[in-house]
Amino acid sequence: MAGFSDQANEFRDVALVPHPAVTVLFDLGDQPFVFEDGCGAQQRERVVAGLAPHRARGRGLSRSSECLQLRISPMVAHAVLGASSELGGTVAALDDLWGREAVRTHERLRAAGSWEERFAIAEAALARRYDAGRAVAPEVTFCWEQMVASRGRVRIERLVAEIGWSRKRLWSRFRAQVGLTPKRVAQLIRFDHAAHRLAAGHGAALVAAESGYTDQSHLHRDVMAFAGVTPATVAVSPFLAIDDVAWPPEPGSGV
Hints:
By secondary structure, this protein is α+β, with helices and mostly antiparallel strands. The protein has 13 helices and seven strands. Strands 1, 2, 3, 4, 5, 6 and 7 form a seven-stranded antiparallel sheet that branches. Strand 3 and strand 4 (42-44) form a beta hairpin. Mean pLDDT is 87; it is low at 251-255.
């Protein structure tokens, strides 16, 4: 979880760089942002961005804006949100998934007196939903963990052999419980690592070589496919510029 506060008074248009997590946003400002995906679908106030939403953006007049953002592993999101197969590349309303509980949680967050209190409210809401939800299959969890550990460079055939499922079964169960196919998730994880390397100031050629791309053109195509912009533009993305503050990397992650 991360809390953002901005006292500026200006129009904002921020692209959401895809990340290998489901993102939940509670807009706590006095004039809500509009979050939209590449298809023009718009959501306000309580928003869920699935894995790799297509060119999602936040737009609006930032006047004393505040936002609580939660990044949820797909392994947890399946239980907490209960609609993983519908969140592969979309921006959805949290109300459609949580009903009145989404509104009540939002009201409590607005009334809270500190970020610590807001974090506690959000954590309690997630815990309740997780305890009542359905867990992801252990085989799917194993494949996800292997993808994350290898930064998206593990071969799907190896995972199929290790879990003892057919390729068709893995594709079907993974898609239903995570929201994307195994291959697409592996590409997303690899892209995320590369995007953070670019944002840290590393050159595109070096990032391509060290992130598992065949060459710099391959990296360029992947960045365009996920983010809709060039590697040079991703490198200066405002969304990634605050990432190391809001989401500090774990020791040894190399990001």
